[in-house]
Amino acid sequence: MEKSKMEPSVLLLSDLVVLPVSAAFSAVPEVADKAAGGKKAIVITQASLLGGKLPLESATLEIVLSVTRTVEFHSNQLLEEIARVLKPGGTLYIQISFDFAGQLEEVRGALERKLLLAGFLEAKVQQMSSLEDAQSFTIRSQKPEWKIGTSFSLRKTPKSFPKVQFDDEFDLIDEDSLLTEEDLKKPQVPIVSDCEVGSTRKACKNCTCGRAEAEEGEQKLGLTTDQLINPQSACGSCGLGDAFRCGSCPYKGLPPFKLGEKISLSGNFLVADI
């Protein structure tokens, strides 16, 4: 269909085959006033056959009145087309009449969300009626007055911030007064034993940490502390016992042990038999 060369101010849109124009216009006073005032109007019935495209120029209409009996008629594409042909600040009226009792609020809420997503503002119900099983309402929304691509300058933020003034009656809290006696006490640092300072120091005379026994074991067994704490084996048989150890094994004479685990010696192991 070729685009209409006329530039109407009012569009009556419907998916019905036959639509009484006077009845549709009279249902909305503003539309009736525009039509009575000599404004050009165009009527499109069976609009669902257009595939969501309107044969009109962009931003040429002041008012669009859509009359339908199906909720699905106002698709997202059709609402975008209506927004395209409306002038900035133009008004859209939608009249819906259907025979689904009890679904008025649900249908109205779904239509308001569609209008919002299509860019319309201030969607409000103007008329609502209920006759037996028939539900009917008229919802009004408006296209924003600004055009696509409109720009505006943002206000610059002030460089200086407002100063806060305190008068003499303003009470300030001393931070130190919030601390208790326990908070002011210095933490007690644990005392470190002489045996634990450094790895080359010798055990003290009254050693109780086990270093004296380790040094005695090193002297009598000829093994270092690391060999006793973390025993390793080149052949893999040192930990099995003397029956599996070679003649030069440093662990010869010690009980069996697991490689990598500390060798545990009995209390009389280092005591001479005679």
Molecular structure report:
A 6-stranded mixed β-sheet has the order 2-1-3-4-6-5, sandwiched between helices. It contains 7 helices and 6 strands, in the order E-H-H-E-E-H-E-H-E-E-H-H-H. The N and C termini lie far apart (123 Å). By secondary structure, it is an alpha/beta fold.
**Helices and strands: which structural class?**
alpha/beta
Q: Over all CA atoms, what is the radius of gyration?
A: 47 Å
Q: What is the terminal separation in angstroms?
A: 123 Å
Q: Approximately how much beta-strand content do the residues carry?
A: 15-25%
User: Mean pLDDT score, rounded?
Assistant: 75
Separate helix tally: 7
Can you summarize the main beta sheet? Answer: 6 strands, mixed
Q: Please give the number of β-strands.
A: 6
What layout of secondary structure does this protein have?
Layout (H helix, E strand, L loop, with lengths): L9 E5 L6 H6 L2 H8 L4 E4 L16 E8 L7 H10 E13 L5 H14 L3 E11 L2 E9 L38 H4 L26 H11 L3 H5 L45
Parallel strand pairs: 1-2, 1-3, 3-4
Antiparallel strand pairs: 4-6, 5-6
Task: Supply database-style keywords.
274 residues, alpha/beta, six-stranded mixed β-sheet, elongated
Can you summarize this structure?
By secondary structure, the chain is α/β, with parallel strands linked by helices.
